[in-house]
Amino acid sequence: MSLSLLGLGVALGGAACWAGLDATRKALVRDVPPAAAAMWLSLGQTPFFALALLFEAELSAGYWLPGLSALGLQVIANLLFMKAVQISPLSATIPFLSFTPVFTSLLAIPALGELPSGWQWGGIGLVVVGALALHARGDAPLWRRLETGSALMVGVSACWAFTANLDKLALEHASEPVHALVQTAGVGLALLGWLLVRRASIAVPRRARWPLAASIAFGAGALALQLWAIQLLFVGIVETIKRAVGMTSSVLVGRVAFDEPLGVGKLVAVAIMIAGTIAVVLG
């Protein structure tokens, strides 16, 4: 599949929203427990997609298997993500999402029949190498450098690789607003029920309300644009663009907003990811 300018623009717009969401979620979980933050973030998006049903609402029976499978994996991924960024630095966790485009592309071959070109595989590989280089510390082998948050984020990568493919399958049987509403409302209600059973707090402190509002806005935009993008491009390509933009942003936002260190090594790693993204686009 060749890359259309429309598809590329939509994918880049979605990637920018995901990058903003990564940063605001990091601020949000400073004051709100991960599960409660994920619950409010999901439920907060539902009015946007409910309103969109007025313009496009299509659904057939073939939707439910991929749609509900994606929903279950999203619940797990949201919990793991929130916990990861709560306990580890943003620049040490987000890079491990680089595995998502690799997992997604591999799964898309049997699931969707989508096979990237040689150049695109090379670009995906460069994005992974650059992302892992962001996590390098000294001469210790990679497995000695892993933080708990980093390991959790690998699990998030696997979950999101499956959901990206399931999203595309689900959209063959439902319109974007329907699928987005099922996912956000389903994740939010599942987490709400789990929190109520555990009698956990769902309160949002006053100082966390702006990060929550920003997360909801970024989240709605990110999901809407991603669902559009995967109908125009291979899912693995969308994930590669998304992760390259997100990881580059995590380094800059981590430095400016969270006072995380920034050195030459990280800048080189970002350059490698940019080169990988260019290879994907031109491939």
Task: Describe the protein.
This protein has 283 residues and is mainly α. It has one domain (5-282). It has helices spanning 5-28, 34-52, 64-87, 90-93, 99-112, 118-134, 142-145, 148-170, 176-197, 209-229, 235-258, 264-282. The chain is globular, with a radius of gyration of 18 Å.
Largest sheet: none
Give the helix tally: 12
Average of the residue pLDDT scores: 84
Q: How would you spell out the order of helices and strands?
A: HHHHHHHHHHHH
**Strand composition percent:** under 5%
Helix content: over 70%
What structural class is derived from the secondary structure elements?
A: mainly alpha
Number of domains: 1
Instruction: Flag low-confidence runs.
Output: none
Shape: globular
Number of strands: 0
Distance separating the two termini = 10 Å
Q: Write down the Rg.
A: 18 Å
Overview features:
single chain, mainly alpha, 76% helix, 0% strand
List the helices and strands and how they pair.
Elements: H1 5-28, H2 34-52, H3 64-87, H4 90-93, H5 99-112, H6 118-134, H7 142-145, H8 148-170, H9 176-197, H10 209-229, H11 235-258, H12 264-282
Helix pairs in contact: 1-10, 1-11, 2-3, 2-9, 2-10, 3-8, 3-9, 5-8, 5-11, 6-11, 6-12, 11-12
Q: Summary?
A:
The chain is mainly alpha-helical and 283 residues long. The protein has one domain (5-282). The protein is built from twelve helices and no strands.
